[in-house]
Amino acid sequence: MAIVQTLPLPLEPAPEAATAPQAPAMGSVSSLISGRPCPGGPAPPRHHGPPGPTFFRQQDGLLRGGYEAQEPLCPAVPPRKAVPGTSFTYINEDFRTESPPSPSSDIEDAREQRARNAHLRGPPPKLIPVSGKLEKVCQKSGEISLLKQQLKESQAELVQKGSELVALRVALREARAALRVSEGRARGLQEAARARELELEACSQELQRHRQEAERLREKAGQLDTEAAGLREPPVPPAMADPFLLAESDEAKAQRAAAGVGGSLRAQVERLRAELQRERRRGEEQRDSFEGERLAWQAEKEQVIRYQKQLQHNYIQMYRRNRQLEQELQQLSLELEARELADLGLAEPAPCICLEEITATEI
């Protein structure tokens, strides 16, 4: 395929062209083919006579040699190379069409056509052969534009994924900080609970000691009751009694002895019973307070464990989401790299296998 460009050129060497009226610039190719005048100016008079030999030689030389002074459209193709049997195209700003095979291949046909269109008095079209690389270049340009657009979209998506990944990392860092705070609080509560357990154990030991002391006091009170009952019995009369004591009645002696010893024993027993009641009330109060503290500690412990489980669940979910976003980002990067390698004609790298490890702990 070849491209023909119509360019105006004054014919100063030809004396016939100098005496002829100046023709306006060439218009569309349709006017060139049909022989109609250019709409840019008045129509010149038709010349039906054959042109002179000087004009034909000049046109033939221009067709064969081309315009060396002007710069061609495609510098890579030499303008003097004749391509027989190749299609040519007239390039104009208004109209483009394909012409029959090159007139340079047949000089007689070119002369006849120049004789028919002699009234135009314009320069002959310049023949510039163009290879089929132009279509390939246009196709490659379109593919490159499409790949650039896809690259921009992929980069925008990568930027979005990167921002989401940064946000998730910030949230993960905050969750880890909150988890560390909750773990510190849980450790503090566990230490407090351990201290309470030690206090409870000490109080239990003290309560056991008080119970043992109360049992010992009960035994002592029983012994005292037994002694008091034995003192209430009438004493055995001695073999040799005092004559003054013999004068007293036995009942009076027993009452006097019982009144002296029994009063002290009753007072001691009452005192021991009152002390025992106080110890019982004190033990019950301590037991109630210890039970209330144990229930409060158990409730706080359950709350801390529930809070830790919730934080661990949130941490695992955030970790999975982070891993998913990283895998998507890596997949997009691999697709973009594979696309670039495919454009360059290289082999695709082997896909990497991502292993994920999640360790779950139970509280």
UniProtKB/TrEMBL annotation:
Pfam families: Fez1
Biased composition annotated in UniProt, kind: Low complexity: 1-25
Region Disordered, annotated ranges: 1-125
Coiled-coil stretches noted in the UniProt entry, renumbered to this chain: 193-227, 262-342
Location(s) in or outside the cell: Cytoplasm
Keyword Transport: no
InterPro entries associated with the record: LZTS
GO cellular component, one term: cytoplasm
Keywords carried by this UniProt record: Coiled coil, Cytoplasm
Keyword Membrane included in the entry's annotation: no
Name this protein carries in UniProt: Leucine zipper tumor suppressor 2
Source organism of this protein record: Equus caballus
